[in-house]
Amino acid sequence: xxxxxxxxxxxxxxxxxxxxxxxxxxxxxxxxxxxxxxxxxxxxxxxxxxxxxxxxxxxxxxxxxxxxxxxxxxxxxxxxxxxxxxxxxxxxxxxxxxxxxxxxxxxxxxxxxxxxxxxxxxxxxxxxxxxxxxxxxxxxxxxxxxxxxxxxxxxxxxxxxxxxxxxxxxxxxxxxxxxxxxxxxxxxxxxxxxxxxxxxxxxxxxxxxxxxxxxxxxxxxxxxxxxxxxxxxxxxxxxxxxxxxxx
Length: 247
Description:
By secondary structure, the protein is α/β, with parallel strands linked by helices. It contains 10 helices and 9 strands. The protein has one domain: P-loop containing nucleotide triphosphate hydrolases (Rossmann fold), CATH 3.40.50. The protein is 40% helix and 19% strand. The strands form 2 sheets. A 7-stranded parallel sheet has the order 3-6-2-7-8-1-9, with helices on both faces. Strands 4-5 form a two-stranded antiparallel sheet. Strand 4 and strand 5 form a beta hairpin. Helix 2 (34-40) packs antiparallel against helix 8.
């Protein structure tokens, strides 16, 4: 089922799916580790709501890793890096969620990963009368690819948010972008990885740069990355020790 055609806008998408976009602060505790929570809080408007959210986070972080945002030189480099990140997190036996704004991008990323030798499983929306259920199996370590809507009731050890480009998000109005980005980041209990393409970045990169300035996110550009530099838990622990020394 497509939820984005060239002529489709966000109100018609919500009407078709019979949904509203996720609320920023639904009831209940959040299973986010502190580094993930600090990043997600940048997408909550107002200090009071931010403090309420941060007070609800309760996940213990196994390895202290800051979220990472990779700015690729090309879409191909973004995809290549994402495939390697998936492999690294699978070695750690983590549940991985790849979250995107539309079904069209879900399908495209799934195909691209498969062509690159990375098996993945797309979330499937089944519609019964007035209810839509989301199904896939957590009995394997295949990364789960889903839209923000499909993933809003799920959690993963690591969440990947690729294709943070204006082209992918142009149809979502500004305040709603912050809401869905919060929801995407808050799906992670341990670590968040974000990626975009240089010269195609979406407007919210300003928020991510602010988060980086405050020590809540590591920014990395494509020219400074080589395959295999960051692999396995040992490198994660080394990064954590380096971060602790800077804190």
